[in-house]
Amino acid sequence: MSSSRLRATTSFAPAALVSALLALLAGCQPEVGDPCRRTIDCGLQGTLSCDVSNAPNDPGNQGECTLENCSFGVCPNEAVCIKVYASEFASVVCDPVEEDRSTDDCLPHEVCLPEGLCGDELRAQTSCRRECKSDADCRDNYSCENTGRNGVYVAPDPDDPDNVVTTRICVPKP
Asked: Which of 3, 9, 40, 130 is the most exposed place for a label (fewest CB within 10 A)?
């Protein structure tokens, strides 16, 4: 009887070991803003992807883990959903206070950005980016910059779209 009990315990040990390893690995998952070279570097769940658009400017030739196509309030705790308007298309001047009230300088698919230029909503992209208080919160070759200008904004709250929220995020140094 004791030998069957021993066999049951030893056959359970590998399963317990695998469970313990998986639990340990779950606590060490990559976060938004972590360095990466390919998407698998951002975790096995496939939620985060590797944005390598700045990799040529990075000393380690690395990108950063992001969550693409986010919306207000869905990013992990270390991040915020950012909406970026393509600056190469922002050339029509508008009045952010009067647009859609007494003037219509922007096309129907555009919004008048606070800096007074029409931004194309169809080409705007959203992604979760690491939030910060200072450069020390960002990795090397990144700086902590304000949103709310130059076509980079916190994604609007659908319940209060006119409230322009600003924060600071880690961005690649030029």
From this structure: 3
Question: How much is the pTM?
Answer: 0.75
**pLDDT for 102:** 79
Non-local CB neighbours of 107 within 8 Å, separated by 6+ positions: 118
CA distance 163 to 36: 34
What whole-number distance in Å separates Cα of residue 95 and Cα of residue 59? 41
The set of residues, in sequence order, having a beta carbon less than 8 Å from that of 95 and lying 6+ positions away, is: 103, 105, 112, 116
Contact (CB, 8 A) for 169 and 144: yes
- Rounded CA-CA distance 30/170 in Å is 16
Specify the pLDDT at position 143: 93
Q: Sign (positive/negative) of CA torsion 88, 73, 78, 25? A: negative
Which DSSP category does 134 fall into?
Answer: S
- Phi, psi at residue 21, to the nearest 5°? -65, -40
